[in-house]
Amino acid sequence: MKFNIGIFCLIFFFSAQSSAQQNIEYKLCDQDFRAINMRENLPANAVYTNKNATAEARAKDVISRLTFDEKLMLTGGWKQMHFPAVERLGLPPVYFSDASQGIHVKDICVKVGKTTAYPGIITLAATWNPELANAYAKSISEECRAYGISVLLGPGMNMYRNAEGGRNFEYWGEDPFLTTKFSVSYVEGLQDAGTIATIKHFIGNEQEFARHVVNVKIGERALREIYLPPYEASIKEGKALAVMTGNNFLNGFPGSADKPLVNDVLRKEYGFKGAVMSDWASSSFWQDKQEIELTSGHSLLMDNNEIFATYIRKQIKDHPEQKATIEKELEAMVLDNLYTFFKAGVYDRPYRNPALLSTFDAHRKVALQTAEEGITLLKNEDHILPISPSSGKKIVVLGTDEALKVFGGKGSGAVEGFDHIDFLTGLKNVYGDKLIYKKDISKEEISSADVVLYFITRPSGEGFDVDFTLPKVEDSIALISKLNKNLVVIHSGGNGFAMPWLSQVKGFVFAYLLGQVRAEALANIISGKVNPSGKLPFTIEKDFNESPAKDYNKMSDGKYYWRGGKNNSQEIRKQFGDREMPYNEGIYIGYRWYEKKNVQTQFPFGFGLSYTTFSISNISASSKKITIDKPVTITVTVKNTGAVAGAEVVQLYVSDVKSSVDRPLKELKGFKKVFLQPGESKKVDIKVDWKALAFWDEKQHQWKAEPGDFIIQAGTSSQDIKQKITISY
Ligand code: BGC
Fold this sequence. Notes:
The chain is an alpha/beta fold.
């Protein structure tokens, strides 16, 4: 099925309640926001009430008891953020919340008290410590369960393809291997503690520009090598129970009715049995094509199914002979939803577990560790950092209020948090009156400081992309650096940007978004209490024109449109009709692109400095040959050769010496973070299997590793390779 997206571009946005649901009213929660508990007086001996029966059998048993209206109702969301109840069968509503970095919802039917604003997902990725993702997600899950939320609308796992993407802070960077390791660990942590993970936005939603209408074009090989692997692993290994599709079109199919990818790949090939939900109101963008939802593999239209339900009712009225077939299709949708909730035990437990409120203090520690391990030191000339509090150095702080307070991204991923301390207060707590901050600071005060810390930010969020340049910052740095050479820039944000000023500053700290613990985390890094160990999960190019995504908001007529502005999808739709966004670079995303094109970047993927130094030596392989059933273990020795404790990330990249198809110069296929005391050394083992050598063969439609030699390279960034060894397949 292929259709022209233009037909569906005359679209209206609906947020009204579903007509399917107007027939069936149920109580969502009582006046005190206590969700109703309806598990009493259940039918005796029913399969669905039997905890020992399989999730599938229980879901089927419920379906056998549902009326047609109830079946229709259970294909849509209700009141924005939950799955409807079936009160007469004792099934309570199931509550949802955004998002990947903590709980966004406030009092949408469940009473949500304080929740932790965790550092952004991009910060978590910068730790290169996937075990931390497990603890981070477990903490969020405990907060969800404490308040009665059973489905988290995360983790997001789109790729950092485009430095201007407004939601990059919600994703894991530019590399599929890194993204996969983190997302699997996150999904496991979240679900093991009782909350369903929703992996999103499947697929091709790498930018906010025209996100509801644009037709993203991705070739088969790029889909298989870059965009699909995190989903495949999160489903097969992580056992993710829910998927959210993207708002965008992909290769001509609307995200929330993409049969080839959802039905054929996710469901048939990966065996995914859980709920596949649309992004909010997405299916209302093709009102006159609602029948495509029935067989697309989607099971849940969020945030409501009004348009779909109206279509179904009309269809059955006009063609009563179709009722049986349509009802079967609805049942298939409902089965996936109910299966998900039975599988996760949602219907077998009290809707919330208030005892978990006592775990929140421990969550602060996880948030702090994430922030500290994520902060990435990109420049440190003359060892300008750390600044010891006992040095007595006079420090001037500059920056806008926004830059001194920022802690998260905007939109559905935003989390309010509590007990906030801003950067300035955090530094004051450490440096006392040696720290100077004044709105009307004089030039003399700036030039007489021992160090100037200049805070910058570029806010980003859902619904708008951001520009690659920061002209005001450029002007300010030109001025400040003339007054004081000991200048350190501290940036909060989830996107790379142009830094023509880099040679004018001595220090540069990329702080991403640090959440509510930002002040303590940053002060610990600046003062040296904690040694930075973050590594960039994306490349920072010098000039956006060098990016593979440089034309992303130049439309097919060659015109260039500004990507800012919240409602640009609506405007674009009204003004311009069909739009395509071809990912022409194919598999060459991020460092794969810059290396292939031999473009010098500002900072390479995987880069990040420490206050100590490390050596990597003695590479060896457990065998010189990899076979399909026998991986090899690559071993290197990492030594802390400096004077303070710290952590290094050993990164393994694989290059195919000779291949029948064009391949990246190298690709990340393993990594490990190692903590070492001064002088200490450790052996690090990293397994490499045949799949790490393989590419997606578009002729055979499968993974293929070709016999021959492969060079395994161990380094501390994609551009700093320390050791190499050749193995064969
Ligand atoms: C966003 C999703 C989010 C949903 C519910 C949508 O606009 O794209 O990421 O989960 O809203 O808030």
